[in-house]
Specification:
Elements lengths: L5 H22 L19 H13 L3 H9 L5 H13 L5 E6 L4 E5 L19 H18 L8
């Protein structure tokens, strides 16, 4: 599985937690969350506190533009570009992971398209052999018809 470099990981969390901190400060979603989420030590942040903030954000994605405007010169051009892409291309929903291979993970969303923002909730589900066969057949047919989409922005 391909992983982000340490530098790219730090960049992602700086942008992500800056955005989540802005949303929480302005909308007061989770009073227990730190004023500024710690992007430098992201593993110490409590996901149970971040989760409602993230849910609110994806219910109100225009907050991203508000954050960019409010942050002004505090954000680099690259950070603004990343945030703008998140606002334009975000899609939310439930999905099934069909395959996890070296180059990418194959998701099937129940209504078409997927995205991932670092928080995954799992459900205690089990599928019978008929359903598993249906997933396999769907994957095979879609792969032949449409191929594998590796980017939502290109």
């Amino acid at each position: 599985m391909k992983k982000l470099t340490e530098t790219k990981t730090a960049e992602f969390y700086k942008i992500w937690y800056g955005l989540l901190s802005y949303v929480n400060k302005n909308k007061r979603i989770c009073s227990e969350a730190k004023t500024d989420l710690d992007e430098l030590n992201y593993q110490t942040n409590d996901v149970s506190l971040i989760h409602p903030i993230r849910n609110y954000l994806w219910e109100h994605p225009k907050l991203i533009a508000s954050y960019i405007k409010a942050a002004g010169d505090e954000l680099s051009e690259r950070e603004c570009s990343v945030l703008t892409d998140w606002q334009k291309h975000h899609i939310k929903g439930r999905f099934v992971i069909l395959r996890n291979i070296a180059k990418y993970t194959v998701f099937m969303r129940f209504d078409g398209i997927i995205t991932y923002d670092t928080i995954i909730a799992s459900y205690a589900l089990s599928y019978g052999t008929g359903m598993v066969s249906s997933f396999e057949q769907f994957y095979s047919e879609e792969r032949q018809k449409r191929g594998i989409t590796e980017s939502l922005t290109k």
